Amino acid sequence: MPFYALGVNLAKQVGGQTGFNSLLDDDELDLVLKGFDETIRGTGVQDETKVLTTYGMTLNKILQERSNKLVTRVKEEGEEFIKGFLDCNDDAIQTESGLVYYCMKEGDGAQPTVANTVEVHYVSRTRFHLWNSSF
Predict the structure, then answer these.
(1) Sequence spans of domains, the chain
(2) Separation in Å, CA 117 to CA 55, 83, 111, 120
(3) Which of these, 32, 31, 19, 28, lies nearest to 69 by C-alpha position?
């Protein structure tokens, strides 16, 4: 089981950062895993450097295009969420920077100072970030 953990770690380092599950279909992911398996085992029949130089630029272009589409979709979904939230919450405020906030319960006690410790409850939604590399 420790070596399974190594596989999990590698997958998290590579697949988790790039969001491959959002960018590749099952057949494409199978090819990625086949390339990984053959390369790590040394059983590949193709020259690794030639494969990278032949297909690296094309792969990078495909992944960049898909990443851009995904980022655009997530951004649009976020904008729809914000619009819906603002429509449903008359007291919600959107700042010039795009931050939206809604005070659910305003305090009525003394104002805190720099020396005070305060407790704040909030929900944060951020835009999607996708790591990308080139060959």
Answers:
(1) 17-101
(2) 55, 34, 11, 10
(3) 19
Phi, psi for 71 (deg, rounded to 5): -60, -40
Is 124's pLDDT higher than 80? Answer: no
Check residue 94 and report its DSSP letter.
E
Distance of alpha carbon 117 from its chain centroid, rounded? 33
The contacts of residue 89 (CB under 8 Å, 6+ apart) are: 102
Q: Are 130 and 67 in contact (CB under 8 A)?
A: yes
Q: Is the pTM of this model over 0.90?
A: no
**Percent of the chain residues past pLDDT 90, beyond the cut:** 40
Contact 67, 23 (CB under 8 A): yes
d(CA 70, CA 24): 12
> Residue 83 to residues 27, 28, 49, 104, 126: CA-CA distances in angstroms?
37, 36, 49, 18, 15
Distances (CA, A) of 90 to 87, 93, 96: 7, 8, 17
